Amino acid sequence: MRKGIVVSPGVAVGTAYCVHEIFVRRDGAPLHASQVLDEVARYERARDATAADLRALYQKVTSQVGEAEAAIFRSHETILHDPAFTSKIRGWIVDQRQTAPQALHRLLDEYTALFARTKDEYLRERLTDVRDVIVRLSGHLSEALRPESKAIAGPLILVAGELLPSQVITLGEREVAGIVTQSGGGTSHAAILARSRGIPAVSGVRGVLRQIKNGDLVVVDGREGHVIVNPSPEVASAYRKLQREFFDLKDALAENRDQPAVSADGESIELLANINGLADASAARAMGASGVGLFRTEYLFLTHPDVPDEEEQLEAYRSVIRASPNGRVTIRTLDLGGDKTIPYLGHSREANPFLGWRSIRLSFEHPEFFSTQIRAVLRAAAPERGVAKDVRLLFPMITTLEEMRKVRGMVRRALRRLQQEGKKHAAVPIGLMLEVPAAAVCIESLLEVVDFVSIGSNDLVQYLMAADRDNPKVNHLCQPLSPPVLRVLDGVIKTCHRLKKPVTLCGEMAGNPRAFALLYGMGLRSFSMSPALIPTIKELTRHLTSRQTREVFEEVLQLKTSGQIIRYTADQIARLAPQLAVWDTA
User: Fold this and answer.
1) pLDDT tens across 19-34, in order?
2) % of residues, the chain, pLDDT over 70
3) Are strands 176-181 and 156-160 parallel, antiparallel or unpaired?
4) What element of type H or E holds 97?
5) Is 440 left (phi over 0), alpha (psi -120 to 50) or beta?
6) Which H or E run includes 193?
7) Contact, 576 vs 517, CB < 8 A?
8) Spatial CB neighbours of 463, under 8 Å, sequence gap ≥ 6
9) pLDDT, the chain, mean
């Protein structure tokens, strides 16, 4: 048994499928002599296709972002055609009869060891470029390797170092029962996307790729954060029984999708969905959400083969709006940087990436690129067939009043240009995502220039506690049920209500039963969460009243430690809604 971080509730039992950065078994059988020339030709076709990709990317990024940002793809093409790079791959295929993907994997290992020995920071950063080229090459060689995953029978437990957004978004191709990752925390890509699909997941299990191999039987316990490899028949049987109980409860809760979210004392509550794309928008409707409270547009860019232009963005946003419940969508502009990067924006390494050049700061650095997204959103908000849409525009990581004023100026200019060009568009409410403690402290002045507030509790907690939420050594400090976090949230919510500005919390706290009860006690009535969690929270609301949750919150304010709050709120959830205690995680 290994212990990790609980990131998505539930229990799953399945067959391990280990996802490496390059999808290949290093110990595969050697090629037959008659296959060698064909394998060299296959590699050269993949190299030519990769070169074509890089040239197309250079042209597109140059036209949409700038030549300086596109230069990264020129350097990648240089690496691709480097004589030493090519001769090593060909040599291993011809002399040692390795497949092209095996040779690429070997080359990556060799470069990783080489760069690890150098103290030159510039050279160490070049490993990222080499890795990008090798992964892109591997992608063109991967079609013949996919049957390896399909040969594994039954539901899969995906085991990875860290899942990329593009990998998680395509999980629908296989029956994925659970996810285990070596790195990442409760708010990593894998965690957020797993929760949106209701897949049990555990992160931060160190060395798991060395301890689990393809075909192993694995248990993922998303209640306790346990991962069990090759359990005894008795243990496997016990967890399969738990898995059935989770499925039965989930099915029962899903039946409330068409019922309103109303508290025990008759107060209406707004339950919205956090989504990453079209599939999640459909899931939000299926789970009974009243709208989309957070559309994370960066996943459109992270999973796009190059860079989406204005027309591609327009179509993507329109599709999501049409699929979303009640046509209501809050669209957040690009939140890139930190742990989410694309080669042509923010690719260079920073000492403290979460405190650096990211999110709205990155957008300001590329105003034309940023304006393209704003224009696409304003055009997507235009009425269709005489029917108005409920679209809102949200800007992330706002720190100062000056930033918010700058954003509003850019929106005004985009509206004027669209009017001059005669393109259909609509003005939309403008909001700020409250994630930075400085914005929380000065929330009253910021409310003068915004139409609504969305609290991004994931980042707010890590910035408030000065702890990287995805660092296993300090992520225990990123506890939303802590006195400082709850006091800051209480102050922000009270200020928004006093100044009559709509406020929604759209971090992972919204879908946590303990945190939800406390937020409800603060007076919050609008929540946005992973679609799969909406039925559970809707059921929870039926057991709560304003008075009892206020009393619970006032009691919590007297507690001095996170541990005390966690234990107390666990007891309260078990008392108020005992049938939901199985979904409750700290």
Assistant:
1) 764 444 455 678 888 8
2) 85
3) parallel
4) none
5) alpha
6) helix 189-196
7) yes
8) 354, 435, 436, 437
9) 85
Q: Where are the domains of the chain?
A: 2-22+147-251, 33-144, 255-583
Confidence band (pLDDT; 50, 70, 90) for 515?
very high
Catalytic residue among 76, 140, 189, 226: 189
Which amino acid appears at position 523 of this protein?
A: G
CATH architecture of structural domain 2-22+147-251:
3-Layer(bba) Sandwich (3.50)
What the block records as the tokens of 288 is: 């009974």
Catalytic status, residue 442: no
Which candidate in 18, 478, 496, 506 is catalytic? 506
- What's the alpha-carbon Rg for the chain, to the nearest Å? 25
For 255-583, the fitting CATH number among 3.90.1150.10, 3.20.20.60, 1.10.3430.10, 1.10.1740.10 is 3.20.20.60
- pLDDT tens for each residue of 187-236: 665 677 677 677 888 888 888 877 888 889 999 998 788 999 999 999 99
How confident is the model over 310-333, as a mean pLDDT? 95
Q: Which residue intervals of 82-188 are DSSP H helices?
A: 83-96, 100-116, 121-141, 147-150, 165-169
Percent residues over pLDDT 90 in the chain: 44
Active site residue 506: yes
| Euclidean distance between CA atoms 109 and 241, whole angstroms | 42
Distance CA 501, CA 495 (A): 9
The closest alpha carbon to 198, from 176, 214, 218, belongs to 176
The topology under which CATH files domain 33-144 is Enzyme I; Chain A, domain 2 (1.10.274)
Burial letters for 195-230: b for 16+ Cβ neighbours within 10 Å, e otherwise?
A: bbbbbbbbbbbeebbeebebebbbbbbbbebbbbbe
Which residues neighbour 244 within 8 Å (Cβ) at sequence distance 6 or greater? none
Backbone angles phi, psi at 25, to 5 degrees: -90, 125
CA 238, 244, 250, 253 torsion: positive or negative? negative
CA–CA distance from 369 to each of 26, 58, 62, 374, 459 (Å)? Answer: 41, 15, 11, 9, 24
Cβ contacts of residue 23 below 8 Å, gap of 6+?
A: 101, 138, 142, 145, 146, 148, 149
